[in-house]
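Hi Y.,

Following your request, here is the sequence exactly as I used it, all 231 residues.
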Amino acid sequence: MKKWFFISLAILSMTTSLSAQFNESPILNKQNEDKKLLNWGYFLGLNQYDFKIEYKENAPDILVSKSFGFNVGLIGELRINEFLDLRFEPGLHYGSRLMGFTGFEEERDAIREVKSTYINFPILLKASMKRFGNFKPFVIGGGSRSLNLGSNEESLDDNSSGTFRMKKWVYNYELGFGIDFYLEYFKFTPSIRGVFAITDELVPDQDPNSPWTGNIESLKTRGLFINFTFE
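Below is the corresponding structure, written out as tokens. Let me know if you'd prefer a different format.
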């Protein structure tokens, strides 16, 4: 996750630098875009989910293999002043993680694929810098509540039957940054955001000594979002 974060940061920094060099006195696009009380848009993007796992006792760590998923959602923005906006960004986030458990001979026992389809409800505060030509950097942060449609929380089966269970609802905090680019017909915004669960998501197996969940104190999602917004 750190690797992708710094790569994305470098890309955004290079984009900003190039914009400054080649657009020192540009024709200003969408000059009244940020003066509206309400603004609407949508986003598309990628995600990579991981787990932060805390253990009860020292033991071999559970291995987590990450893959890329996708994000799609809507944006509603309320203007507070020239530099602050309150945003609501409901979205669908699909991702998948493979968890590897030690001590098993059979792959069907050692591997659990955790597919998650989150419906995310974030309320975020966006703090922007002064507009420079046709771009404006910003930082963004806030809290969110997510519904995991693939949680298996109500399943009567657990890992002894091949089912890894998580709680349906999770609370998170989110932090990120990005750049608004004012194009001729719309505003385009690439952004990077980290999402960190603050509530335990694990539904433990019925057996308190389960080789899968018995040593887990807490399991919390963390993720990296790369979103592209059109407003």
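The chain has a mean pLDDT of 88.

Thanks again,
Q.
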